[in-house]
Give the backbone structure.
Amino acid sequence: QVHLAESGGGLVQPGGSLRLSCAASGDISSLYAMAWYRQTPGQQREMVAALTTHGSPTYSDSVKGRFTISSDGAENTVYLQMNALKPEDTAVYYCNVDLIRSDSNMYEYWGQGIQVTVSS
């Protein structure tokens, strides 16, 4: 059993910052890959940032230079630092994690989603 708990969302003014956290708990041997997605009503979920444990981060063009994805392997937590936020960043944000459990198999999990609203 694995649970992802997201936190850090909320309401922020344009130009402000937020940091999202996604803490994984349960039967976890190690994290392999992690990503943040976002979704607005009527739109498909889009990937905004991704990171593997042995690779460089990748970002969508819309957030490049403003968002930073990072992880803390010891805490099984992935972060998304969001700076210079714009109203168009308003969405529900989801973390996505590929991890290895004690059975040595890889599994994919999604967080429950957290609202980020950028508005004055």
In short: The chain is about 0% helix and 60% strand. The radius of gyration is 14 Å.
